[in-house]
């Protein structure tokens, strides 16, 4: 009714206005000129009436605009409510619109598959294009995609794009932003430093020189780690000039640095992280670490904050990254490596630009405006438009004589006044075709590739030739185009000026597993070089989640068992010792530098050719050496900080910087920052060495050792502690000292115990990798208890075999299956049972009982609380690479068929059982497989711990996997975590009241119970698709995976990133290759 009323008012106003104007014209025509000149008042009245009519028309226009927005809001809200469930199909809004009395037409090309409706709204014969947006969910999209990989012609993975010349006019021009860039990998074919010295330094030096030559030139840069190397080489005078320019924005002063260029918008730092991190294998803490390192460096040295993120080379994209950069204040994101079929579908529906939203977000607070590149790669042949043969002709680094050529054998031409018209219009045709894939008339055309612009000649060739093209395009109004160099922020600013972000579709989900062509799925790198993936997590643990630390002090060994980091314990020492803080932070001690170096080494390895394991062998070795040095540095920080905490009352003087210099020189009143007070219980002799435990040696001169346990979590912990000793006969009293949970306290709290009050312990033999038992080495185990953010000390004493205190320590029983020969003799272990012919057996704790086959593989699990038994079969298997030129490698997983089970021909099986721990070890030629069951009051007793030490160096094209089979009816659905990221708030929950979880095998990934607190982690639903090849059904496994039905859930937690698949209902397969031996290199 409101529309009809407005229409009537407008029509009547137009009729009355027209009649009035006709009357005036006729009246003035018949009046004498002198009478007309005397009628000034009439003209004033006419002007007033015309102004009133214009105001009426303007109000009418505003009313119609409000009506349009109201309709879009009404329809959008209705569809948004429908789309809150990612699995729900959105119904058509046609009836709601018709009920408003509006004429609506729905074009036949409506794409219901992705929940998108393109509507034409007709009001008073004026056509308005409405994009009604709903929720796009990638899992639902995968269900509907055919993945048919048809040949699209020039755009092989797309189609022949057509457009109308009338799509643009002087009021609606095509805006093209050519964005020069250079992608610099901090390690890949060369090491980080080798790349810098051979190429990157030249790029950065040329960048400043060449951009200063013309203010119209632009450039973007991503990797802050290279900026830091460059910055360290330039002079103090140049740094001072740059800081002055950053501070006052003086455009007149010329300098050799980037201050002026950043200030006037010629140079933009995008993303700003230390590296462009991988998004599949990385932990969110490591992502944050490398982003903080980069952003802090930019702030401290350039007073610069990035606005847009640039993720063009990671092999798949995670929503965790979008979430984090959004929270960091970045406004825009560009991504590239997405499955070609997904790109094609989003391009057809013009949804390549979207608001990326977290799956759990119902309010839109996590929305991040994201631009997806549509074509095969980020190099020049695949960025100007759909035809790489044409685009390659506009990569002027490939001019004859420049050392590069176009694979399509049509080289670029230097742009002159004679060919500029033809060449410019050829390029414009590509820009126009690319614009058909997006909703706006703003085109992003990146101009660069790996390590481009390292020669001054390329800067001249690219910028000069493109500028001639721009000049021609911009001075020919019939072409209706504005082309220029731009930064990423220039592009997104133009996009936002044309279309508000709310008008873009909303998308949730992730973009794994990536395929760039055919069946080349990049799932191999999920597991490539797993040893170094584990080393990455170990360093992250020292910087954040340190579990096992040990040392000695003046003849006394210390074992620090905690759950946080060098950063945390350093912070505790600094905060709790104000008098000591100045020493800890002093540059002379080197502790802060060690911490910074460790953070930067961890950050560097997050590069998408670092933690992925896809760099060359010697580059991976260089990464590993950096990680190893960082681990040793972190250990030094920890032992120094713990010494500060344990000796907090020894130093009471607050030292000035002068005092520190003087006292360090004279070694007075201060700890020795170079002295090792503790040796941590994680010995890694080399960057390629498997860690070893420190052996606490006892003898006549060393009858006791002190063990220190550290807990950096905010709740009390009771967990099993294992210490390796040189004698089987020891006793463990209750802790002597505890630093209270409030670490600001000034005094140690003494725990008084009656004589003989000992901690129950278990003594177990130590097995060597060969399967034999170590002489004079034993593992002593006891339950350690540490308050929140606290330290506790235990004293381990050696005793004689007949000592009365030995009653508190229990020797574990030992069974050896499938062994022929004499019974081994192990001091202290009297009851050793040898079973020549293996048979089924079981181990148990107070909560769980596990049954094993005669070959030592898990068969079933019983939860004692309910008495329910679950079949849980563990199998070991392998994949082989398919033959031919295209084979599995560091990136790709291309198996030759289904996995083949390993032959287990009477393997040696060792079973250790005691009151605190039971363990089954299976010794195979390629792998040591062992499962541990803890019997403690802590969370470590809620599941089974599985370890595989794999050695397949004698094999080629061999990928080892572990498969777990159950009777869980999960309908081919399973869930994996996203970058180990925790989201949501800590909530309180009483486990005994959770009836739905009573039959859970373990639930550690979705909730970590401590004092009834539940920590929720970001998980994403996966599905096995039979229409896709096996390798496409492997997904990243950063930390957790589970399958479930209405009654049962099986959860697997990993110590390092791996790959995972659920190829059959009830089955989980961890690989591809818990270890991989792939001679082919697919990079």
UniProtKB/TrEMBL annotation:
| Gene3D superfamilies in the cross-refs | Glycoside hydrolase 38, N terminal domain, Glycoside hydrolase family 38, central domain, Golgi alpha-mannosidase II, Golgi alpha-mannosidase II, domain 4
Entry's CDD domains? GH38N_AMII_GMII_SfManIII_like (cd10809)
InterPro entries from the entry?
Gal_mutarotase_sf_dom, Glyco_hydro/deAcase_b/a-brl, Glyco_hydro_38_C, Glyco_hydro_38_cen, Glyco_hydro_38_cen_sf, Glyco_hydro_38_N, Glyco_hydro_38_N_sf, Glyco_hydro_57/38_cen_sf
Task: Show the SMART domains listed in the entry.
Answer: Alpha-mann_mid
> What's the domain of life for this entry?
Eukaryota
Instruction: Give, as one word, the top-level EC class.
Output: hydrolase
* PROSITE patterns (alphabetical): PROKAR_LIPOPROTEIN
How is the cofactor bound, in the record's words? Binds 1 zinc ion per subunit.
Give Gene Ontology CC terms.
Golgi membrane
Q: Which GO terms describe its molecular function?
A: alpha-mannosidase activity; carbohydrate binding; metal ion binding
Q: Give the coiled coil ranges.
A: 36-63
Report the Pfam families cross-referenced here. Alpha-mann_mid, Glyco_hydro_38C, Glyco_hydro_38N
Protein name per UniProt:
Alpha-mannosidase
Species the sequence originates in: Timema genevievae
């Amino acid at each position: 009714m409101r529309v009809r009323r407005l229409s009537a008012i407008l029509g009547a106003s137009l009729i009355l206005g027209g009649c009035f104007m006709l009357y005036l014209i006729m009246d003035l025509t018949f009046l004498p000129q002198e009478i007309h000149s005397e009628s000034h008042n009439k003209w004033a009245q006419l002007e007033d009436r015309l102004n009133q009519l214009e105001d009426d028309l303007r109000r009418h226009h505003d009313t119609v605009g409000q009506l349009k927005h109201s309709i879009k809001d009404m329809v959008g809200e209705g569809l948004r409510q429908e789309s809150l469930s990612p699995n729900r199909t959105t119904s058509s809004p046609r009836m709601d619109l018709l009920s408003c009395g509006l004429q609506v037409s729905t074009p036949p090309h409506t794409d219901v598959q992705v929940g998108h409706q393109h509507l034409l709204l007709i009001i008073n014969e004026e056509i308005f294009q409405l994009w009604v947006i709903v929720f796009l969910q990638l899992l639902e999209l995968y269900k509907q995609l055919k993945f048919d990989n048809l040949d699209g012609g020039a755009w092989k993975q797309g189609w022949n794009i057509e457009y109308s010349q009338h799509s643009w006019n002087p009021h609606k021009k095509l805006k093209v932003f050519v964005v020069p860039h250079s992608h610099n990998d901090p390690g890949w074919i060369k090491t980080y430093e080798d790349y810098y010295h051979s190429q990157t330094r030249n790029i950065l030096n040329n960048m400043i020189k060449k951009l200063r030559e013309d203010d119209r030139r632009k450039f973007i840069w991503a990797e802050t780690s290279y900026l830091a190397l460059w910055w360290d080489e330039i002079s103090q005078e140049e740094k001072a000039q740059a800081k002055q320019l950053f501070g006052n924005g003086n455009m007149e002063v010329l300098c050799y640095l980037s201050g002026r260029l950043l200030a006037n918008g010629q140079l933009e730092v995008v993303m700003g992280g230390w590296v462009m991190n991988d998004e599949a294998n990385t932990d969110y803490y490591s992502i944050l670490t490398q982003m903080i390192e980069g952003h802090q460096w930019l702030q401290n040295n350039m007073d610069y904050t990035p606005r847009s993120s640039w993720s063009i080379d990671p092999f798949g994209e995670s929503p965790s990254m979008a979430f984090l950069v959004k929270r960091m204040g970045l406004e825009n994101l560009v991504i590239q490596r997405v499955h070609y079929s997904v790109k094609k579908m989003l391009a057809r529906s013009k949804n390549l630009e979207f608001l990326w939203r977290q799956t759990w977000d119902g309010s839109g607070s996590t929305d991040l405006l994201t631009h997806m590149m549509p074509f095969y790669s980020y190099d020049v042949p695949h960025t100007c438009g759909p035809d790489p043969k044409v685009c390659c002709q506009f990569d002027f680094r490939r001019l004859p004589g420049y050392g590069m050529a176009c694979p399509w054998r049509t080289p670029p031409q230097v742009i002159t006044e004679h060919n500029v018209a033809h060449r410019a219009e050829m390029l414009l045709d590509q820009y126009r075709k690319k614009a058909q894939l997006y909703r706006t008339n703003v085109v992003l055309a990146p101009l660069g590739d790996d390590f481009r612009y390292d020669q001054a000649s390329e800067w001249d060739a690219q910028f000069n030739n493109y500028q001639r093209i721009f000049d021609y395009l911009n001075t020919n109004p019939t072409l209706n185009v504005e082309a220029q160099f731009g930064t990423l922020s220039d592009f997104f600013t133009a996009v936002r000026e044309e279309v508000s972000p709310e008008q873009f579709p909303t998308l949730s989900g992730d973009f794994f597993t990536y395929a760039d062509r055919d069946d080349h799925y990049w799932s191999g790198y999920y597991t490539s070089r797993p040893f170094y993936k584990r080393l990455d997590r170990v360093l992250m643990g020292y910087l954040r989640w340190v579990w096992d630390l040990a040392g000695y002090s003046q003849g006394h060994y210390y074992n620090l068992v905690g759950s946080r980091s060098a950063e945390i314990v350093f912070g505790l020492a600094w905060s709790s010792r104000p008098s000591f803080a100045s020493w800890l932070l002093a540059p002379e001690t080197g502790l802060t530098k060690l911490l910074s170096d460790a953070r930067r080494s961890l950050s560097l390895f997050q590069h998408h050719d670092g933690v992925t394991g896809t760099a060359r062998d010697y580059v991976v070795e260089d990464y590993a050496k950096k990680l190893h040095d960082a681990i040793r540095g972190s250990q030094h920080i920890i032992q120094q900080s713990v010494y500060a905490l344990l000796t907090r009352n020894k130093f009471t003087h607050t030292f000035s910087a002068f005092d520190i210099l003087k006292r360090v020189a004279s070694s007075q009143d201060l700890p020795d920052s170079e002295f090792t007070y503790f040796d941590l219980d994680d010995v890694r002799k080399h960057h390629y060495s498997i860690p070893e435990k420190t052996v606490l040696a006892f003898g006549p001169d060393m009858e006791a050792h002190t063990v220190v346990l550290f807990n950096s979590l905010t709740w009390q912990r009771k967990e099993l502690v294992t210490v390796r000793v040189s004698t089987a006969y020891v006793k463990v009293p209750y802790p002597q000292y505890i630093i209270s949970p409030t670490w600001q306290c000034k005094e140690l709290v003494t725990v008084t115990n009656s004589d003989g009050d000992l901690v129950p312990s278990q003594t177990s033999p130590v097995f060597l990798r060969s399967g034999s038992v170590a002489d004079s080495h034993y593992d002593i185990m006891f339950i350690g208890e540490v308050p929140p953010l606290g330290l506790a000390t235990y004293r381990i004493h050696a005793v004689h075999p007949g000592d009365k205190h030995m009653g508190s320590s229990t020797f574990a029983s030992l069974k050896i299956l499938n062994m022929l020969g004499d019974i081994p003799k192990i001091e202290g272990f009297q009851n050793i049972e040898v079973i020549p012919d293996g048979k089924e057996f079981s181990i148990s704790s107070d909560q769980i009982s596990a049954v094993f086959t005669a070959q030592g593989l898990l068969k079933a699990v019983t939860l004692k609380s309910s008495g329910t038994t679950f079949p849980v079969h563990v199998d070991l298997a392998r994949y082989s690479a398919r033959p031919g030129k295209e084979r599995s490698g560091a990136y790709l997983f291309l198996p030759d068929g289904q996995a083949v089970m390993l032959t287990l021909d009477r393997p040696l099986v060792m079973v250790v059982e005691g009151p605190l721990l039971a363990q089954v070890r299976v010794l195979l030629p390629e792998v040591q497989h062992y499962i541990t069951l803890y019997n403690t009051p802590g969370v470590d007793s809620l599941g089974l711990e599985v370890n595989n030490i794999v050695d397949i160096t004698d094999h080629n094209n061999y990928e080892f996997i572990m498969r777990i089979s159950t009777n869980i009816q999960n309908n081919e659905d399973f869930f994996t975590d996203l970058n180990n990221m925790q989201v949501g708030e800590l909530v309180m929950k009483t486990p005994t009241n959770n009836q739905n979880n009573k039959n859970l095998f373990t639930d550690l990934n979705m909730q970590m119970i401590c004092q009834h607190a539940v920590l929720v982690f970001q998980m994403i639903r996966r599905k096995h698709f039979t229409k896709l090849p096996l390798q496409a059904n492997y997904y990243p496994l950063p930390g957790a995976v589970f399958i479930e039905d209405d009654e049962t859930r099986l959860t697997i937690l990993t110590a390092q990133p791996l790959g995972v698949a659920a190829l059959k209902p009830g089955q989980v397969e961890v690989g591809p290759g818990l270890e991989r031996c792939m001679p082919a290199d697919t990079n």
